[in-house]
C-alpha cells in the first residue's frame, strides 16, 4: 500500500467508486467530457480546447464542468487516455511480429489525434488507456528472451520512435517544400565545411521520389526495421560487454 494520493481524474478514468461524493447526480461523465474535448482538438487543434468550449458542447456551465475535471491539465490527461482507446490484441506470432503490429497501431492512433504529442503531462501515465497500451507492448516484447528490464527499455524505444516519426511528419508536412529542399541545399552548402553532408547530397540521399507515397513510407519502414533488428540482436546477446 502507499500513502501517495491518486489524482481524482485518474480514479474517475478507472471508474473508481466515489459514491460518497456530495452534490447532485452527475449530468454526464468524464469519458463524455473527454470525448467532446477530443472532437474539438481533432477539428481545431489542442489550443482550441477550453473548459468553456467543452462545457458549451455538453450543455453545461463552465463551473459545472469542474465537477468532472479540476483543471486544464486534468482535462488533457483524460483526453489523451480516452483518445488512445484500446490497444491491439496481442497474439502468439512471435515478439517481432507482435511489436511491429503494436507500433503500427500506435502510429494510426497518433496520426488520427496528433495533438496528443503536444500534451506535456510531466509524469508517466496512470490511466487505463495508456497503461493498457503499455501492458500490450510488454506482452508483445515479453515473448522474446530478453530480461524484464530490457523488455521495458525496448518498449520505450519503440514508443519513442513512433512518436518522433509523427512529430517529424508534422514538422515537414509541406511535401512540395520538402522536394525542393535538396535543390536549395545544393545552392547554399559549403562543401569544404560540410563534406559528409555534401557526400550524402551527391549520393542522392535527400532526393525524394516525386511520386513517393505519403507518410508513413519507406523512411518509417526503414527505421522500424532497424530498431527491431537491434532488439533482435540484443536478444541474441543479452549480456552487456
* Strand residue content: under 5%
End-to-end Cα distance, whole Å, is 38 Å
Averaging pLDDT over every residue, what do you get? 89
Query: How many domain regions?
Result: 2
Low-confidence stretches are none
Percent of residues in helical segments? 55-70%
Element string (H = helix, E = strand): HHHHHHHHHHH
How many strand elements?
0
Q: What is the CATH topology of the largest domain?
A: Tetracycline Repressor, domain 2
Task: Assign the CATH class of the largest domain.
Answer: Mainly Alpha
**Radius of gyration from the CA trace?**
22 Å
Structural class: mainly alpha
Largest sheet: none
The CATH homologous superfamily of the largest domain corresponds to Tetracycline Repressor, domain 2
Q: How does the overall form come out from the CA principal axes?
A: flat
Instruction: Provide a count of the helices.
Output: 11
Task: Report on the architecture of this protein.
- It is built from 11 helices and no strands.
- The protein folds into 2 domains: 76 residues, Homeodomain-like (Arc Repressor Mutant, subunit A, Orthogonal Bundle); 111 residues, Tetracycline Repressor, domain 2 (Orthogonal Bundle).
- By secondary structure, the protein is mostly helical.
Relevant terms:
241 residues; mainly alpha; Tetracycline Repressor, domain 2; 11 helices; 59% helix
